[in-house]
Design goal:
alpha/beta, Rossmann fold, 8-stranded mixed β-sheet, Epox_hydrolase-like, Alpha/beta fold hydrolase, AB_hydrolase_fold, hydrolase, AB_hydrolase_sf
Length: 272
């Protein structure tokens, strides 16, 4: 796996969470309460780079999920495998009372993690989430992912479409995201896709006790209105916000607005 050196990558720290397996993460080093941010399928911790400046009063912990970026694949490629790995990371770091932000697959991982750590998660924010992310075995997207072979072309049509956004996003940032995604072996793309077909987080969602905020774009091409409706009824305490005209990556399309929504929700849960 080729890792492209840059400022974000140079900030990564590494801890061993299981025998011979390490997780890479960026730690903002803030003195405030910890906020764990989990990225989506094929992304890396870089996914949240534009949000960092809006959270000066928090300690941001932003890992590369297993098999992504600079983190080793640690076991299987299902959402619960990723949650188990991040659970071990939190134990190593000694973090107990946290707020969680997850995007797409990271949101699924965050749901599973919040179900595991019911007394240790005080808020759960889900961006572009789904409880049942199966794309369908014969969908064009699934066929395109299964057809990926190494080396993956970062400038090819698949990643161009995969990283298409509904609103303007910095082109240099998107180029670096594509390089990160292309560095992930095709076998991991295939394995995660297969895991999605077997994922159903409805029972895990029912076990979450933290207040939940769901943020999604009305123009999300992956998880549309049916996914948003299911999420709206899946948790004990949930608030849903749909951003008109936004796509699957609202935190890239408008990091300031999404950060403001997250901060407002965190402040409200703290008062409660």
């Amino acid at each position: 796996m080729t890792i492209h050196a840059d400022h974000w990558h140079s900030r990564k720290r590494y801890v061993e969470t299981s025998e011979g397996k390490s997780v890479a993460f960026v730690d903002s080093g803030g003195n405030g309460p910890p906020l764990l941010l989990l990225h989506g399928f094929s992304d890396t911790s870089r996914s949240f780079a534009a949000l960092e400046r809006f959270f000066p009063d928090f300690r941001l912990i932003v890992p590369d999920l297993p098999g992504h970026g600079a983190s080793a694949l640690d076991g299987g490629m299902h959402v619960d495998d990723f949650a188990a790995s991040i659970d071990r990371l939190l134990t190593v770091l000694g973090l107990e009372n946290i707020a969680l932000v997850g995007h797409s697959m990271g949101a699924m991982t965050a749901i599973e993690l919040a179900a595991r750590r019911r007394d240790g998660v005080n808020a759960l924010i889900l961006l572009s989430a789904s409880l049942r992310p199966d794309f369908g075995a014969e969908s064009p997207l699934a066929r395109d992912i299964r057809s990926l072979r190494d080396p993956i072309d970062p400038s090819g049509p698949f990643l161009r479409d995969w990283y298409a956004c509904s609103r303007p996003v910095d082109s240099d940032f998107l180029s670096r995201m594509k390089l990160d995604a292309a560095a992930m072996p095709a076998a991991i793309w295939h394995g995660i896709l297969e895991g999605f077909g077997e994922t159903d987080l409805r029972c895990s969602a029912a076990r979450v006790t933290a207040p939940v905020l769901c943020i999604a774009g009305s123009a999300d091409p992956l998880f549309g209105s049916s996914h948003r409706e299911t999420l709206a009824h899946a948790f004990h305490t949930v608030r849903s916000i749909t951003l008109e005209g936004y796509g699957h990556n609202p935190h890239w399309e408008d990091p300031q607005r999404v950060s403001a929504l997250i901060l407002s929700f965190l402040a409200e849960t703290e008062r409660v």
